[in-house]
Write the structure tokens for this entry.
Amino acid sequence: MIIKKLQENAQKYPNNIAFIINDKKITYKELYEKILYYGNLLKREGNSPVIIYSDKSIDSFIMIFSCLYAKRAYVPIGKCIPIDRLNKIKELTNSSIIIADDLKVLDKYKDLDIISNDNNIAYIIFTSGSTGEPKGVPISYDNLNNFINWINSLNPLNDYKNINVLNTAAFSFDLSDVDIYYSITNGHTLYGTDISFDNYSEIYDILENVDVAVMTPTFMKMCLLNPDFNESNYPKFKCVYFCGEQLDVNLVKKIYNKFPNINIINAYGPTEATSAVSAILIDESMLDYDLLPCGDINTSATKIEIVDDEIVLSGPSVFNGYINGNSIDKYYTGDLGYIDNNLLYCKGRKDNQIKFKGYRIELDDIQNNANKIDGVKDSIAIAKMNNNTVKSIKLFVITSKSLDYIYEELNKLIPSYMMPNSIEIVDHFPVNENGKIDRKAMMNL
């Protein structure tokens, strides 16, 4: 379905820009030609998953679609991932090839014979695991096609023609599936950016060209730091799709104050269910309540039910199980929620998993890796909250080693987005009257 759409777009809009990333552009015609070339080379190299170890670039997107053409699962890994973790992922996927920043490494396979491949896995995204090891989520072509059909039918996204779509998420983070596949299957232009809090002022020049933005609430808060970011100065900006974090009522009010006519979509879904499974267009009547809905059950991509206060998913968007794990029929998300008048609400987590700046992080993953460091006796990672939103991560460590040493060693074990905002060395952890570690007390330290 995806490659067919790209072929159609290359024929219908050959000179239209498909991607603009860091001032580099590629047309639909050029994109499709490169997909055919590199896709056929991948068919000659083998049939194992292909690790794309790269930051966001035109080449990384070419590689994604070349893998889909070759029917080889792609494994997107950002450069923020430490080498040790990358090697673990290579081992888990049995990948025979890692493509970094130079696609020409594939040229050496052009004289080999094409290998037939009927693989049904489109991509594998690795998430934070509670054991301290990366956890692989294989998404099938059926899952992905179902997601594309759903996102393309979503109101008001289904009405837009010839628009510019903003991609803010790393391509190794499944929020990027929304803008990539929505944009590319509809013949839109995708603006990709690696802008972060360190250089956020650069985003405003890009936003002048954007009709639809896909982002986390955290990214929008960054955009609103500019008092000139409003409807008068950014008249093209007509819709924002939020996912990856809980959307706060107060943030929505601030957006409406700046952009009275904007469409705001609030979406929900875990990586295991192909990026997102439900969404709803927020209207001002919803702002009278503390919690915003994150989906309409009548238009969801898959079946959603509540079991003992937990959101449970099943159906065509849901994966079949983790790499080296058991197959599943239902996915118990670990998210607490409820359904009221056919609207889905998510109240938070029932475990130590958090969403921070759009990334899914297991606090146990941080702790378990910290405990691997020589000289660390024990550690506890705490998420500091404000209005159900994670504001920062703090790691408490019992050790005789220096703080600089702990930072240096932990950087070798976990991705940069998982690094705690602060680390404190302590002699012991506080306990409550039941003799258990008092996490609530630690949040105030």
Notes: The first helix runs from residue 2 to 12. The chain has two domains: 2-349, 353-443.
